[in-house]
Specification:
Blueprint (H helix, E strand, L loop, with lengths): L7 H9 L4 H8 L3 H13 L5 H9 L10 H12 L19 H11 L2 E8 L5 E6 L2 E6 L6 H9 L3 E6 L13 H17 L2
Antiparallel strand pairs: 1-2, 1-4, 2-3
């Protein structure tokens, strides 16, 4: 099967003109995962910056216009009919020496749906509910929401484990995932720069 080619110049022009994700997916016949992959490749090649990607979501509100999404999904489904199911390559294992913010960023970019139990070296154990590029809920025994997330980000190390998915008892995080990570990194930098 021939790999689909994308006109990078046109794509970047549409991104810079402010075209939303639904418009990009429809115009370039991309799935949400394909759109994410395209952004990651452009980032790797240096054709778009992390700040530009963050700016795409920074001004968005929680209300999302899904007009046209059914058409995109239907077109994608129709295109897949008759095609062989793609083999999934899935590994499990243990990772060491990774910054928890980097790991959460990877889960957000990958669109994971998981419950992450984090046991930091300092502070209370923390549970994060991550779904489709968003941190929905964060809780410790003492606090919930952004405060719990920012406290977790201050710990220099610890362990984390994935738990089976369950719906969170409530939504306590309103910020977009990347905004939450940027704020946590900023607060960490402030703390690290103190004498």
């Amino acid at each position: 099967m021939e790999k689909r080619r994308l006109n990078t110049k046109d794509f970047l022009s549409d991104v810079q003109a402010g075209m939303d994700d639904v418009g990009l997916m429809k115009r370039y016949k991309l799935t949400p995962k394909g759109l994410d992959s395209t952004f990651r490749k452009l980032l790797t090649l240096g054709l778009i910056s992390q700040l530009e990607l963050a700016a795409r979501t920074a001004g968005q509100t929680e209300t999302v216009d899904l007009a046209g999404i059914n058409t995109v999904v239907a077109e994608h489904t129709k295109a897949r009919l008759g095609q062989k199911e793609k083999t999934q390559y899935l590994y499990s294992g243990q990772v060491e020496g990774v910054d928890i913010l980097d790991y959460i960023q990877w889960m957000l970019v990958d669109g994971r749906q998981t419950v992450l139990e984090v046991r930091p070296e300092t502070g209370m154990p923390c549970t994060l509910y991550v779904d489709a590029g968003k941190v929905l809920h964060v809780a410790t025994m003492e606090m919930v929401g952004e405060a719990a997330f920012y406290q977790l980000a201050q710990s220099p190390g610890g362990e984390f484990f994935h738990l089976p998915w369950t719906e969170p008892e409530r939504i306590t995080i309103e910020k977009e995932g990347m905004q939450l990570l940027f704020e946590a990194a900023r607060l960490r930098d402030e703390t690290d720069s103190l004498p």
